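User: Hi! I'm working on a homework problem where we have to compare a predicted structure to a textbook description. Could you give me the structure for the chain below?
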Amino acid sequence: MGLTKQYLRYVPSGTFNVIASPDCNSTHVTLNGVSGRYIAVGACEHVIIWDMRLGEKAQVIPGENVMVSQIAASSNGNHIAVGYVDGNINVFELTNNEIVCVFAGHKSAVTCLQYDEQGTRIVSGSKDTEVILWDVVSETGVARFSGHKGAITSVMFINGKNCIISSSKDTFVKFWDIETKHCFKTLGGHQMEVWSAVLLKEERYLVTGSMDQELRVWKLNWKEKIKEEDKISQQLEIVKIEDTDNTEDSSILQCHQVGTLIRGGRGRVVGLETDLGQTVLACYGTDSLLELFAFCSDDEAKTRMSKRVKKQRKKMTKLKETGEVDMEVSEVSELLTLSDEVRRLSSIKLSAKLKSAALLLGTSGELRVGVTLATNTVELHSLALEDGNEVTCLKQITLSGHRREVRCVSLSSDNLAVLSASADSVKLWNRTSQACLRTIPLSVRPTSSCFAPGDRHALVSCSDGSLLLLDVAAANVMESIPAHEGGCSCVGLTPDLRGCYSGGSDKTVKLWQFELIPDPTGDSKAKVLSLLHTRTLELEEQVTAVRISQNNKFIAVALLDSTVRIFFYDTFKFYISLYGHKLPVLSMDISSDCNIIATGSADRNVKIWGLDFGDCHKSIFAHNDSITGVQFVPGTHYFFTSSKDGKVKQWDGDSYDNIITLDGHAGECLSLCVGGGGLHVVSCGGDGALRLYTRSEEPLVLGDQDENEEGLATGEQHAPVPGLPGLIMPTKKTIGAEKAADSIVECLSVCAEYDQLVSEARGQPVEPPVLMAAYNCNNSEDFLLETICRIRASELEEALLLLPLSASTSLVPRLAGLLDRGWSEPVCRTALFLLRVTPSLQQPALLKHLIQIQARAAMRVNEIRDMVGFNLHALQWIRREAESSAGEQLFRDATVARKSRDRRATVARARKRAIVTIT
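Assistant: Happy to help. Predicted structure tokens:
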């Protein structure tokens, strides 16, 4: 039996109005070898790279249905890591936006990300209190560090010591050893949450920010050989040691608080940022002030100390001469203090609350600061590090989005333009390019909007009771009409398109008629559009929504008493009352054939009523929160609903089926509009995004459910491995890992059946199974290797962990044969992990295969190592030949050699200055 009804799927076709999400950080990126010009920010589920010179989007890295919470750019500028609120981390190639690898290990939002110095490893922290180290090259998790009791606020590498530092809301800062995968030191000198931490000055200082006005500066002393250039910094004495800081002589790390930096901003510390060279510290709190501190070099710090000591000695001499100080007072000690090491730069006062900051220090001493604000704005500021006095705003991107929350949205009759309104402005967008065409400033909060006939004008109702008539083409407010006393809740066109209606909190519904009047400003002789009040419908309660049927017969009014009153449109005579909702109706619509009316209420229900008798055909529990929008598709009984739960749903008004659910907004969905013919649907929400959905030609069968809607995570997220309580996997069990395990089991069964057929055929050709032929394989070894190589590297270990013992036992003998054929990397990983987590494999029957795997794996690994070493030295020989023939040297090596010569010359001059001749 065929389908009785055909539906077409609506697909997302655009997200706009978001310049930068407030819940995501920002970072400088390098595109085409250019730095300091591009800033990457999170925009809902996408990442936008803004060109701060042209003020336009340079690149968009797309995402899928999950909000971006953290981004980090690699040091080489080739990759960017994106963390999401579901705990996953995607690594993208910047040149083509392709996903390099996917890391699934956290079970809640990623709060911090950082690359190491070489760009080969990533450390991530999350709200699930876990810190995970990832290897980008092998695309796997290395270690999971568990120990914090609160959400992780920052993580960072100590590249010189192969360690990781993490801070958390549990007031602790922990130091982790990557090799042993354990915490070797805990810093407990904070009384409240540690909201951010950062390393400064060649990883010698740790600065932490908490709930108070002080930034604590800690000195890291490692008990190892001290370099010659570090002897100057050893003069920095311990100014203050907390009583809670119990120093252990046996620890390889001594961490002491050497002082504090006093902030000028209010509230807690939101974030601390530094540049790649760890020279400048930026601090911002819950206000609009960005404070900058510069950590001086050793030579500059010594110079500042000399000036300070000289000034203090002069002051001490004057005091001794006046007798205010005893003559026996000791001299000023020549010791470096924190005031000598750190100098305050000019603070940047911004127009709104800061959400993130990114620093980039150029070789010429210019500091570029990229900031994102709570008003959906990205700014780039410049500051000269030498003087630190004048701050210049290079670029400000504001026109590409509303500064406040979008309250209502509407589509033009030809589906070419989208009108959105917020408390700061009304914007007109091109639907196809999603570019902002016009911006009209507003000073009041809008409640609803619609295009006037001809799409050259628009009507906007406001919360102060006024009705605005806008000239869209000229981008100005033509007329502001005081329509209602109190708020004006809704506005819409009458079916004959000759006028409009409005409803307000003054318990009235007013009808207006369009008319052309002479231009009151006298600027032109042409007539302009205006509104003439014709009739008023008096009611008993405040009006929340109004609709007029297409046949001009009925006018439906939703009231604050949770009822919907229907009147005859021509006489305003009462016709029928629709009651049944427990809370007020917020939105409603009448179908094009005027047979049914759908009402959506704050009680989360949608009720479908018949207009002939006023009976309730169906009550549907549609959403998990208040329903904010209901609108029919023209010419059908299909209708869309939007809700504060963020979802947009399509329903069939005849069969009462939920056709499709569009997971759109991360916050509330505040308004909805269906375009002419139902080709396009646009919605606005609390996440600041305008989301456009387009009807495709893809048929939709009810009951089909996408795998993504079933949820990705199943079972335990990262439980300890049975029998090995010390082994905690960095990754978590996902649908992909389960599918990979099923594919391995299926492959082993197919290979066993095929090998049996080959043995029974006794040399006769055997046709491979269908699955093996689909992989373009003609033997079981190729089929097994292809199956293993198709598994994502980050999911391989979880897939092997899910294998039953029988499958693992049958897999091990086949691995030795694969190593014979020269495939080493995935096979070695598989063998080592199986032996690690499955002690039952160490049985006498498999001992022979294990010995073969050990010998062949070592041989293959040595071959690969020799090949890599040979290629490396061959490339070095080719480089030397090219340099000698051209008489040139590579730029990087030349600069390294020059810096080495300059350093030796500086040391030599310092030794000469130490020789003083006394005559």
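For your comparison, note the following. The two ends are 115 Å apart (CA to CA). The longest strand covers residues 527-538. Good luck with the assignment!
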